[in-house]
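User: Hi! I'm working on a homework problem where we have to compare a predicted structure to a textbook description. Could you give me the structure for the chain below?
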Amino acid sequence: MASFVSWNCRGIKNKFSDLKDIINLHQPSVIALQETYLKPGDTLPLKNFNILLKNGTGDRATGGVALLTSNSFPTSPITLNTPLQAIAVQIHTHSLITVCSLYLPPNTPVDQITLNNLVSQLPTPFIILGDMNGHSPLWGNPDTNTRGLQVEKILNDHNLCLLNNDEYTYFHEPNRTFHSVDLAICTPSVLPYFSLQVDNDLHNSDHFPLILSDNRRQNPSIHSASRYNFKLGNWCKFSSLANINKDIVSNNSIDAAVKNVTEVLIAAADRSIPKTSNTFKKQRKVWWNADCREAHRRQRKAWALFRRNPTTVNLIRYKQTKANSRRIQRRSKRESWERYISSINSTISSKKLWERVKKTSGIFKSSNIRMLYNNGIPVTSLQDIANCIASELSRTSNSSNYSVPFLNIKISAEKKNLNFHSSPYAPYNTDFTFSELKRCLSETHKTSPGPDNISYLMLQHLSDRSLQNLLFLYNRIWQEHSFPSCWQQAIIIPILKPGKEPSDPRNYRPIALTSCLCKILEKMVNKRLLYYLETNKIFSPFQSGFRQGRCTVDNLLALETEIRNAFIRRQHTVAIFFDIEKAYDRSWRFGILRDLYECNLRGNLPIFIQNFLKLRKFRVQIGNQLSDYFIQEEGVPQGSVLSVTLFALKINDILKQLPPSVKGFLYVEDLYISCTGDNINFIERQLQLAVNKIQQWSTFNGFTFSTAKTSCIHFCRKRRLHPEPEILLGSQLITVVNEVKFLGITFDKKLTFRPHVIKLRKKLDKALNILKVLSNTSWGASRTSLLRVYRAAILSKMDYGCVIYGSARQSVLKILDPIHHSALRLCSGAFRTSPVESLYVECCEPPLDHRRKMLTLHFYYKILSLPEHPFFKYKQSQFILRLQKARPCVIPSFFTRASEFLNNLDLKNLQVVSLLKYHLTPWNSHGLKFLNPFKTFEKANTAPIVYQQLFADHRDLYHNFIPVFTDGSRSSSSTSFACVFINSTLSFQIHSSSSIFTAEITAILHALYQISNSPPDNYIIYSDSFSALESMTSLHRFSHPLTFNILELHDKLACRGFSVLFCWVPSHVGISGNEHADNLAKSATDSLNCPVPLSDIKKYVKIKLHSNWQSQWNLTDANKLHSIKHLITCWPSLPNRKLDTVLTRLRIGHTRFTHRHLLLGEPAPLCTACQCQMTVLHILIECRQFNNQRIRCFHSSCITLKDILHKDHHPQLFTFLRMIGFYSLI
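Assistant: Happy to help. Predicted structure tokens:
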């Protein structure tokens, strides 16, 4: 295997395929390229290689050098101070060596001093590879030129060695002569280890590649580890082999049992799941086919003939085969690209869609290994790099980083013994149930395995028997208070922080891989811990991080609302944004346990966490090399499921330190505090008091604030001069800034959000390139797929935080509109002059302002559905409302804006069902089973009389149960439900926004309410909604909120002596009670004022806004599309991109032929026959010269645009367009 390759490629862009051939053939660790012909700003993406470039200057692509280094080796670029086209890198293969790529143009004079200066800058040992255009007998040329003499002098003056032999490296095509101008020069210390040979193929250049082989070992490259290929796994075989029996988990110690389980799973995986190859990863050429292979074979054959007999005829034959091969490859590339892009359509899954989008965008994982410098000393080998990063991470969590005052507090506090063994019989200490295990397994996502190499996918494919025994092992760990030692280990993958210097070991973010077996147990423990903390209201309502129903926008809303209200009152608001240094890594473990103790947690749960935090150790992995074991003394474990919850608990008390006049919000560790008032001096005093208390709290809990990253911003709209606040953090003044980025949104001091929108626009401009790559008017991804990509990759970025920054002025928000319009044009294929209103309707994608209103109302109702939300009971004061009316130029707060939207849409009286957070205890299975005596009969193949007889038999079996029939109904204008009892009935209309599912659930709930008013007895509730009954069988946090009310009421009735069963009956088969309930529900007239679930409200808001949009569209009679598409609905797109683009442009009425003049500033095209302006309407319908073609294709000359361009276009449309010669002009 080659160590280094040097090649003058004469333009790397059109030699990219040949470069891949060289890599696949020689498997180099470094490739030195000359004459890359890249312009400034050009890049060279190549998988598994890191690229260093020095491009030519000027607008023309000339010269240029590059170094491609394999990601398997540690590298470090060297900065060269030279005007020469040279670039260098240090790489550690067998040992550390410097490689320099040098190109000396033939007609450009080079000073000897400049050459000497370059050589003196290269760390020894080094190798210089490149095209130096020097002739000398030393390396096989018959003559000597000036450049050759300069190179000879370099060799003599610096005691360097020449690796070249007499082989020729350059072919001069005009003279059909061979020369040696590409050289390999090295220092004497590495001369014995390298041998040079010249490739016998030019690879479509005029220079032969130089191949330097390292003789010290056969395979110096480091390949990736073998991994299980789960896509090809035989999961049935795995399930049968992965037999975890009771003896494995019960007759051994905890450590031995975990080891045995691991061995069983790995042995089963080895026999049923193939592994990926760990050999050299070749560069793929997906477009390479049999034609390319044959053309390339002919080219190589012609070249071999020319080398043997260098005549003019053979040269011409070689050039012909070369040109033919290049033409075939270009055609193959184009056709392959078009096929691949066109395969992105609505039929493929989201996973495959995004895989293809990433590939087409050139996005691939890069794991370049860089050399480190530890205290100025270079660290070059993989083992040393891994140990260096591990040592730095271990040092970060060391208690020596704590301040001296806290260390004294720590030592004193840890002398106290926390007795968690009292009160072990709390419900959260019970054994884990099988339903808990299954629920946690179903919620897992694809992640990398930990040190034991066991993945979630393996655990999900275990049999129920094996899972039961695994659960037994978990309960042993839970009850015996013994934590497996192998689960205390983690593998750290270091990821360079964005924009940081890669040679500094402190600039790497640790990504920890822990055992998936352990993480399943952690998930079950975490659910119980969260349930306890939430139900006992231990978390502050102002902590939003990783809590059900909460998000970052809650904190953004709090800040924006306070600032807007301050602006209306013409007050000041000052906010401080804190940054905690190494927050997770330096969390005080004993402090966390003490907090658990003070929360009155006792027994198995806190003891498990106590053992979980002990003796944590890790190894850093670089490539295939693992570091030594290092200890994480303090901090919560990286990559752990429990870590976020434990950290949130530890930092929770920081908000209790604030004085009443100062507000504060947390999103895990992201903390801000703010104060509002008329007097800036008062604000300064209050904030200084708050900062002092926070600083004091941090001293007692081991946290340290970064004064450099902590910032302060003064929000004020007053124009007169006023002093900025001066607040000290410790002994340093907190920096006052004009804008700050908080949770992804940039706040400026005037709250215009212009800086945020401008930054967002720049980010979206780059994201828009994805659509440009995928879309083409003749071929490309389908419109449906493009819209999916747009909504996921671009629109989602605009959606985040838009309920907050959407309060900006329209002049600011319009900055984002061109992104929306450009994306819709690319997705639909519409012509550039198409009206934006037509784009919205054609793509069924509303304007951004419409979308911001919808998301604002969604978020507003979400707040109203969460009783524990800090803004649940928020109401704008009358004083603020009066000020708002008096000062209409001041932008109102979120709730005032939402209230205006509600009034405009007539939604003011709409109530939302409250979501009961943590209503379900994790250790119990929740759900109500229902009877189904008809499950073996398919409704499509069963006569009604059979169902009636089956129901009669069922009633005979349950004759002592009182029947109750329920049903729901929904029409275009109303939603209703009915309940039928033996002696009474009830039926009500509910809010029209309610879905039919909600009506069915509400009917069952009201039947239970009616039953609760009767004496205890046996009841059976019949419903024809299978989905409603199915939703009650297994409740989870995403279940319909009314199902929780049904469960709660059912449990209360059971406690009172009632026996209530549920049963499904088929609808419209003649079962009298069901038919009666159905008729009553349809004819209900009385209204019942009941709240509506959040999911139904979101759909209703969308419908109302869509209705407004439709009303606006109805007024655009002059729009060409309106005459064809009256209703805003999604019409299907054609599978062929070209045909779909043509149809879209015809519908919109803007084509290249009819509207290109608007872009070029030319007169509109006129019809030569009719002497009127060319339009789509005129060409397709009005122009008399095409009447014969209309009759042939449409069988009539009197047709309308709607006839041929409607949702289902005329089948002869494209035939007609081709006949009149208009198809190619659209």
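For your comparison, note the following. The CA atoms of residues 830 and 1145 lie 5 Å apart. Residues 312-342 form the longest helix (31 residues). Good luck with the assignment!
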